[in-house]
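Example 3.2
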Amino acid sequence: MLCGSGLKRNGKTSAGRTRWRCTGCGASSTRTRPDVERRAQLGAFLGWLMGKSSQVECVREGADRSFRRRTGWCWNIAPQIPVTGEVHDQIQVDGIYVGSWCCLIAVAGDYVLGWQWCDTEKKAAWAALLARFPAPTVVITDGGAGIAAALSECWSETAVQRCQVHVQRNVRTYLTGRPRTEAGKALLRLGRALTRITTATEAAAWLGGLNDWYQDHGHLVRARTYRNGTALVPGWVRANQSWWFTHDRLRKAYRLLERLSRAGTLFTYLRAEHAGLNIAPTTNRIEGGTNAQLRLILRAHRGMSEEHQKRAIEWYLYLHSENPLPPAELIAAHHYELPRPKRTVITDGTPGPERYSAGLSAEEGLWARKGWAGRT
């Protein structure tokens, strides 16, 4: 038995196995070095987890159960990206839902900065993620719940660029892909033109087109319908509501574009002070480069528990950070020490009078019959 102080190579056996000698107690062993074996197990585990193949395809046929037994301790390693304090020109943030959990992710360029687990995209969760990094010049977001309040609290001096693709999707959701009215068709064309704007002149022309649309169709945005005996009441109107906007979905689409235009978050990437920074107008980098790959991993290994899904996401994000350590350097002693099953100790109850019994009693008219009773 080796004491574990250290191992030193001590030749080979006739069968070709390496002989090791413990530097502490002097004992020798021909077994595989534990640290080398664990590095190999973790490497095989990550090769399967980050790939698309099943366990049967990664190992020889019939050895998948052995693979799970050997690498079960690898699930205990929870990687974390260290905070460097580097100031970035732009940071993209977004969230992805995994079962009952939501993972908020921050990306700068081609690298992942960090993540935060939460139940929903609320202010406290976003603030916990943003507080780890210095405020960048511009943050690109899809405008999800809680992000605006967290940005005003943590990065109040940072300019905000609203993802134009998400704005297009929201406009199409309100108007549908084939609106029937001329006002809806004209507003949908304005929404689709967002991603084709590349200069400040084109942005100014787009804003002028939105203002012209309101001059022509603003009366539809303000139109109201009052409840009376002949009015057709939509299903979304409350029972105690006396009036509602007649063209509610058209109004919502216009109000979205008008609110973002007034806030100045639609064309932040075209501002003169951000020239040369190559600010992205969309969150396509994090949506297509990170979230899409996470969904592929979860789909390839569908059937994992929520905890294992979370660990798979954490490993992918860690390995795609700027300077990740080799996975073997994250191994600690408590990771591969699997918890032993607890023994169930059965103790006799406190002695006392029997309160309930399953036996038969004569008082209840139940007893064991004997002899010829009941026979004719």
